[in-house]
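tokens incoming
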């Protein structure tokens, strides 16, 4: 998996977009104490459940792969 040029910024954008998406859908209310890793995993699973993104094979799921997948998703939402 090739790291994106501005992946760190895209991950932050993905978290913001994902939190908004989940809360607008009424399925989650994130707390200020929720870690970025928890948000990333929840957002990823929600987007896969809603068929917004393709799932990563379960044996390849890691924080690094989830961050990368969400960064790609965020890059498509200008």
């Amino acid at each position: 998996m090739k790291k994106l040029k501005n992946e760190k910024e895209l991950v932050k954008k993905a978290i913001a977009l994902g939190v908004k998406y989940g809360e607008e859908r009424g399925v989650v209310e994130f707390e200020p104490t929720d870690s970025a890793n928890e948000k990333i995993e929840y957002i990823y699973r929600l987007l896969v459940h809603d068929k917004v993104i393709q799932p990563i094979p379960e044996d390849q799921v890691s924080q690094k792969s989830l961050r990368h997948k969400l960064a790609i998703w965020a890059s498509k939402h200008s």
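note: The chain is about 60% helix and 0% strand.
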